[in-house]
Structures are given as C-alpha cells and as structure tokens.
Design brief:
Layout: H1 4-12, E1 15-20, H2 22-26, H3 45-48, H4 51-56, H5 58-72, H6 79-88, E2 93-98, H7 104-108, E3 113-115, E4 118-125, E5 131-132, E6 152-156, H8 165-177, E7 180-184, H9 195-202, E8 206-211, E9 223-226, H10 229-244
Parallel strand pairs: 1-2, 1-7, 2-3, 7-8, 8-9
Antiparallel strand pairs: 4-5, 4-6
Length: 246
C-alpha cells in the first residue's frame, strides 16, 4: 500500500511539515452542520460566518456556532490525529498546520500546531481581541460579553478576514525548511494554505499527498496515496518508531 521508497524517505527525514484539512476529521464522524431539512439548511456559511452578520444579528450567529459546538462535543481524535502527535515526539523539527477549526489536533496532544483558521472552542472579543478557551461557556440566548464590555465571538477566521499573520509566517517558514511535507485530507484549492505544499516542493522537499480522492495537487506530489489518513499515517509513523527502538 505504501511504497518502500517512501518509507525509507520518511525514516530519514528530520524536518517535517504537515498540512491537514477537513478529510482527516471526517474519520472522527464529524457531521456537516446542515442536515437535510434542518434549521441551518436555510443558510449558507458565507451568510453567517462574517463580521457583518455578527454585528447585525449576533444571537443568530451565536446560535449557529453553538449548534456546531454541540455537533463537535462527542467527537474524538482518530488514529490519524494520534499518529501525527506520535510523529511529533519522534523528530526534532515538526510543524503541524491545519485548516480545521474543530480542535481535534489539540485534543490529540499536538504541541507544535498552527491553526490557520482558528479554533471553534476559543472565544474572542470583537472589541479588544482577547481570547479565552472557555469550553464551559454556552450560548443560551444572551450574547456573551468580555470584561471590556465587547461582544465575545467564536475564535475562528471569518469570510473577509485575514489569516493570522504570525501563524502564516511560521507555516511558510516550516514549508521552506521541510525535507518532507505532507498534505492530508485537503482539496488543495484554498489559498494561501494551498501554496504551502507547492512552496515546500519548490524548496526541495519530498511532498506526499494523502487523500481518499484525487485533487488538483495530486499530479504535483512526489507520492499521492489514496486512502484514509487513519490507516496510512500510523503505518508511516510505525516505520519511524521501529527504527528508533534500541
């Protein structure tokens, strides 16, 4: 299933960069927020996930995000998330970059983690920008308020907002110094994140794609593996762990 040549590269690589997308969390059973005939099927994400919608109707936006938090409440990291955490512990230079906001990489124990689109479990003040990880905060009709008096909002990047500058800079630096870069469960169409595997390849890294289907990046990857991350990633990490055993 995994070429021996790739296993040998994985074994020798010391500078690892990883980009993950929604595909890796699909294996945790995370359902779409819009079920057929459901309350939120009437809305498009662009209509709710933006500052204008929040300022115009914060109760509606908070209701939607509370629904999404409820959907995620029982979700657990899967074998793919856990394999990346184990990989991080086996090499000195490992950077995990995710487009996901579900927080499952954090729950899996990843430390060297860049959440480009934020985290739905974090609350951020729209006025002062202060963030807090208050999982016990639950929207019940009144918009939560920061100590400064500003409205709290979910700590995610909304449509029309820029990605966090510091995290993006660190992500580009990780891609440039990687000798192995993986893109996992992402369509490779949303920029600037989609530029990371291209940058890594141009800088000399071996680039590996793991996805259940072909993407626009597949022809550019040195290795494009079809399958679930929860199966393929543990096999890659086991090779590294085996070689490091005394």
């Amino acid at each position: 299933m995994i070429p021996e040549q790739l296993l040998e590269i994985v074994e020798k690589s010391a500078h690892i960069g990883v980009l993950t997308g929604a595909g890796i969390s699909a294996e945790s059973g995370i359902a779409t927020f819009r079920g057929p005939g459901g309350l939120w099927s009437k809305f498009k994400p662009q209509e709710l996930a933006n500052v204008e919608a929040f300022l115009a109707n914060p109760e509606l936006v908070w209701s939607w995000y509370q629904h999404r938090r409820d959907v995620l409440a029982d979700a657990k990291p899967n074998a793919g998330h856990l394999a990346l955490t184990a990989w991080e512990s086996l090499v000195s230079d490992f950077t995990l970059i995710t487009q996901n906001v579900d927080g499952l990489h954090r729950l899996a124990g990843s430390q060297r983690l860049l959440e480009l689109h934020g985290n739905i479990q974090v609350n951020r003040c729209q006025r002062c920008g202060l963030e807090s990880d208050l999982r016990e905060l639950r929207f019940s009709g009144d918009v939560p308020v920061c100590a400064c008096g500003g409205w709290l909002r979910p700590g995610v990047v909304w449509f029309g907002e820029s990605l966090p500058e510091r995290e993006m800079q660190q992500a580009f630096e990780a891609a440039e110094r990687a000798d192995l870069f993986l893109t996992i469960g992402t369509s490779a169409q949303v920029y600037p994140a989609a530029a990371l595997p291209e940058l890594a390849r141009d800088a000399g890294a071996v680039v590996v794609e793991i996805n259940t289907e072909e993407t626009s990046f597949s022809p550019l990857a040195h290795f494009s593996l079809r399958g679930k991350a929860g199966i393929l990633l543990p096999a890659l990490v086991e090779r590294i762990a085996f070689k490091k055993r005394p």
